[in-house]
């Protein structure tokens, strides 16, 4: 039988008046929550399937039983309905829709082609800057490996513009033969531009064409007795050939293609995407969408719409299953990208191998997911027993503090749920206004800031709060939560053993004088160690970034109106920052481009900072 909607909703009256045109519908619960958003070529026919006819799947029946109202929006076309559905899902995040767990943008490789000496760098974000973008890459590691490869082959600079503009001698990258030293003009702009163009050809998949060009240049250099240049060209040819030997599957292709495969085992689903750009296989990435009420075909269709309508789509998308609205999605993506985008379920040759590669990755992803989930369930149940909780914890937060001799203290908060880390909920806190090395004060400040927001309803309240530390840190956490009147949160301090070896952790609980020591093979201890180690890693990463920024930023960069060119001239005139610091206002004002007002500002800034 079909699902029975809420008694307050008259489905017969609704269906008698609904339009048969294309559009989008929204299932609304009694409390106003948007339960589900869907699109339809014929709204009347699609909505009738929910309330009249054969039996629905259990999840669909559960959703329909909660429906208090259905809102519809008629659109001019199916494509317009698809785009509206995407925007509404993104806005409301309905719990019965297909949702992605990872919404972070993919990294790109960015070449600042507009600069005199272009830079090659890692980039994530809007691609509206001048220059060339290559990717997307499946992860940051693949992007950085490509940058390192380009440095080795073409000696391109990876340094920031600020660092580049203030060099008076080559850095270590030049000494280890990873950069040609453009910062001090050891290479002409014309020669450097040639290297940039060669690197771009590699990124575009034109390695074969580039090898022929490099061979001709090597021969010309040899005839001109420029043997060092010829040797460098020879090394570049060998390096590019090595790349091609590892990319034999894709070396004859030039298109940008994504191979997308969905594999399902019971309630677990994995979508794997293999990225091919310019003939190079850049790797793959796995996604584990929550299926909502969708069947396998609808799940893949929903995934493709959410994923590609929010990102740049390649010219071809290969899929391992037919989807009903492929033509509508093709049209929407083609209009959005202003070029043809094809979705192909049936392919041969090398494309079939890419698709098989994606399917194999998805199979492995599902198996690993199921194994991980089984382990997670066991660990959460063990934690329930250890802490005597009424239910396995659904949300765990852990705090850690990191600093170097009290400098640039950073606190981290990581969050875990039944499915593992919830990275979108991670937070870092830059600690200010306390004595250096005061870990108790730092912990109190971080907890106060975090749980004041939780008190306001800005984040869910955890079931378990872990604190990296002993009784002192535990006392701070207990006081903060009591002051904020936050209840029903179990707090535990996690302290290392006497020789700080894993497996000897001591758990301190409020009201218990003696610590709890779990056996080394305890599943609960393994989960606690994992959460604690993740908090430690996240805190150290944030602290190092903050400390590094403070140590590498020149005090001259904080002077208003003092740009890179004037800073460089100051350093050149006085032989470095120490000489600038010793100079008087009159001496500073004599430097080209530095007026007396700016000289006063420079002097005040330098001496205000000691």
TrEMBL record:
Family in the record: Belongs to the UvrC family.
Function: The UvrABC repair system catalyzes the recognition and processing of DNA lesions. UvrC both incises the 5' and 3' sides of the lesion. The N-terminal half is responsible for the 3' incision and the C-terminal half is responsible for the 5' incision.
Annotated CDD domains: GIY-YIG_UvrC_Cho (cd10434)
Protein name, as recorded: UvrABC system protein C
Subunit structure comment from the entry: Interacts with UvrB in an incision complex.
Keyword Acetylation assigned: no
Domain UVR: 208-243
Provenance organism: Steroidobacter flavus
Compartment(s) of residence: Cytoplasm
Domain GIY-YIG: 20-98
Matches recorded under HAMAP family: UvrC
Gene name tied to this protein: uvrC
SUPFAM superfamilies, alphabetized: C-terminal UvrC-binding domain of UvrB, GIY-YIG endonuclease, RuvA domain 2-like
Transmembrane portions of the chain: none
Assigned keywords, A-Z: Cytoplasm, DNA damage, DNA excision, DNA repair, Excision nuclease, SOS response
Tagged with keyword DNA damage: yes
InterPro entries: GIY-YIG_endonuc, GIY-YIG_endonuc_sf, GIY-YIG_UvrC_Cho, RuvA_2-like, UVR_dom, UVR_dom_sf, UvrABC_protein_C, UvrC
Domain of life where this protein originates: Bacteria
Residue ranges annotated for the UvrC family homology region profile domain, each copy included: 270-481
